Amino acid sequence: MAENGYADLEKQKLLLQQHEEKHFTSSEIIRDIIIGVSDGLTVPFALAAGLSGANVTSSIILIAGIAEVAAGAISMGLGGYLAAKSEADHYMRELKREQEEIISAPDIEAAECGEILAGYGVEPHEYEPVVNALRRNPQHWLNFMMKFELGLEKPDPMRALQSALTIATSYIIGGLIPLSPYMILPVAKDAVIASVLITILALLIFGFIKGHFTGDQSFKSAIQTAFIGAMASAAAYSIAKVFRV
C-alpha cells in the first residue's frame, strides 16, 4: 500500500515536470506601463494642441511640453510609489492582525479555515486533516488565511520603487512622441499636423497592444484609445482658440 502511494506521488511529480503552463504573470508591470504610456501620449498631446491653437511658436510649445512631461513623470511615478507602498503597508497590518488571531483564538481560525475549504465543495471529513496539518505549521496556516480568507498576496518588497520607475519611464516615452515634431518643425501649424498624425498612429498601436495584453478586442481597444486621445487634443485646441487673446 505504501509502495503504491509512493509510486503515485512519483507519477504526479513526473506529470508536473512534463506539464508547462503558460500564464501571463507580469500583470502589475503591464498595468503600470499602460497607465504611464496612455497618460504620456494623451496629456502632452492635448497640451501641445492647445498651445498650437493659441498660435505660439514651436519652441515655446516644446519647452512647455518638456516641462509638462517632466512634472507629469514625477507626479505619476510618485503616485505609483505611494499606491504600491500603501498596499504593502496594508498587507503588513493585516498580517500582524491575523497572526495575533491565530495565537489568541486558534479554534475560531481553524473553523474559518474549514469554512473556506467547505466553500470549495470539500466535505468536513476531507478538510479536517488539512486543517489539522495547517495548525501544526503556523506559518503555512498564516499564509493560507492571508490568501484565502483576506484575498491578499504578499507584495514584492521592490514593488513600490519598480512601479514608480515603470510609470515615470513609460510617461516620458509616451510624452515625447507628440512633442517630437516640434523638435524638428519650426512652424507650429506644420508641427501640430505632424503631431496629430504621429500621435494618433501611436495611440492606435498602443491601444492594439494594450487590448492584446488585457484580453480585450485589440482593434476595439485601438479605436477607443485613439478616440480618447483625439477628443482630448481637440478639446484643448478648441478651448485655446475660444479664449485666445
Automatic annotation (TrEMBL):
N-terminal signal peptide: none
Domain notes: The cytoplasmic metal binding domain (MBD) is located between transmembrane 2 (TM2) and transmembrane 3 (TM3).
Membrane-crossing residue ranges in chain numbering: 60-84, 164-185, 191-209
Catalytic activity: Fe(2+)(in) = Fe(2+)(out)
Main subcellular localisation: membrane
Role this protein plays: Vacuolar Fe(2+) uptake transporter.
Location in or out of the cell: Vacuole membrane
Membrane topology listed for this record: Multi-pass membrane protein
Alphabetized InterPro entries for the sequence: Ccc1_fam
Keyword line: Ion transport, Iron, Iron transport, Membrane, Metal-binding, Transmembrane, Transmembrane helix, Transport, Vacuole
Similarity field: Belongs to the CCC1 family.
Native species: Hevea brasiliensis (Para rubber tree)
Stated name of the protein: Vacuolar iron transporter
Assembly and binders: Homodimer.
